[in-house]
Amino acid sequence: MITHDLGIIGEMADEVAVMYVGKIVEKAKTDDLFKDPLHPYTKALLKSRPEIGTKGRLASIRGMVPNPYLLPEGCNFEPRCDEAKAICRKKAPELCELDGHIVYCWKYH
Questions:
Q1: Most buried pick, 18, 26, 44, 55, via CB within 10 A?
Q2: pLDDT (tens digit, 0 to 9) for every residue of the chain, 109 residues total?
Q3: Domain that holds residue 39
């Protein structure tokens, strides 16, 4: 199933792969991903969900999604990431397996 609706994913999927600009950035069992997201993009997505009974402005992810034809040299999320390191700008992240998650992020290397 491919969807932008996190509520549907939470109800219907046992495992989730989160994609950013066409690439998987994190994959985990649904419950694990919702309870403890690892990738900064996954964290930001989950923070941007509306919650019943709360008022106010929804959280948003700063910056703009990159042009898929002019992607940055390193991590595609680096220009928008609050946790970016110097290596993120230079080199695409490698796979890391951690606590049942597969995550592509230099933070975990």
A1: 26
A2: 788 888 888 889 999 999 999 999 999 999 999 999 999 999 999 998 877 777 778 789 999 999 999 999 999 999 999 999 999 999 999 999 999 999 999 999 9
A3: 6-49+72-108
Q: In the prediction, which pLDDT does 70 show?
A: 93
CB 105 within 8 A of CB 40: yes
- Alpha carbon 45 to its chain's center: 7
Position 67 in a domain:
no
In a domain, 102, yes or no: yes
Cα-trace Rg, the chain: 14
Residue 54 lies in a domain: no
Rounded distance between C-alpha atoms, residue 47 and residue 91, angstroms: 27
Sheet with 101-104, side-by-side order of all strands: 15-20, 23-29, 101-104, 95-98
Outline where DSSP puts E strands in 21-99: 23-29, 95-98
d(Cα 65, Cα 77) in Å, to the nearest integer?
A: 8
Tokens standing for 104? Answer: 């592509």
